[in-house]
Amino acid sequence: MKAAPGSRRFELKWNLVGILGKLIIDVLFATARIERKIPEPARPLLASNRYIIAFWHSRILLVSHFFKGRGGVAMVSASEDGEFIARILQRQGQHTVRGSTTRGGLRALTQLIREIKKRQVPAAVVPDGPQGPRFMVQPGVIRLAQKTEIPILPVTYGAERMKVFSSWDRFILPYPFTRCRLVFGAPLTVPSKADSPVLEACRRELENELRRMTREVDGYFGHQID
Question: Is the pTM of this model over 0.85?
């Protein structure tokens, strides 16, 4: 019998998921050799709390590990898969807002804006989640940057040795003791008074940058993930 949301059994189960998930990720990347590529324009943003990180659904593991303990706010799908991610992020010291472009999108976006302003912390959005299409930026992250007047900082990563799943997002799981490369892109500022054509141009610019970065880091290790 499935535990009802909010029940003691439900909370016990998902708290355990969060603890074990964080532990596994911590151990995995403790064994990895992690290189970082951070362009000069991104450095002052990372030293502040004024940025929105945007990364593909398939590249969440190392990104979440790098930003753990920073108290950021992440938008996470309201699905059961999202519950798994949310509990791990919470154990990593992040706050979560539940929703996506397909489920509770407007409400979640409004709540995310409120949390960013209240807490004065970074935000995290997976622009091709929770169900794709893969490597296509949905407009929610652009609207978030417009409403908060906070720049978007694209980030991705690759690994020398890894498992590539056959899921819709081609999720990657680095093997222990492998080399990983975490790559940041050029920050993108969305004008607060931008009209629809400008917002669409910003969406395409972010999508192209994330795709370019991901192709580059995969190619760095000799991979081409279709």
Answer: yes
Q: Is the dihedral of CA 148, 82, 170, 64 positive or negative?
A: positive
DSSP H/E element including 164: strand 162-164
CATH number for 113: 3.40.1130
Give a yes or no: residue 194 inside a domain.
Answer: yes
Residue 167 inside a domain? The answer is yes
Residue 166 lies in a domain: yes
Give me the domain span that covers residue 40. 8-220
Tell me the C-alpha distance between 75 and 60, whole Å. 13
Domain count, the chain: 1
pLDDT digits (tens, 9 = 90+) for 54-66: 999 999 999 999 9
C-beta neighbour count of 217 within 10 angstroms = 21
Count, residues in the chain: 226
Sign of CA dihedral 108, 143, 45, 114: negative
Tell me whether residue 156 is in a domain: yes
Give 68-83 pLDDT, tens digit per residue. 988 899 988 877 778 8
Site of tokens 């706050």:
95
Q: Residue 123: beta bridge partners?
A: 52, 73
Question: What does the alpha-carbon distance between residue 63 and residue 22 come to, in Å, rounded to a whole number?
Answer: 13
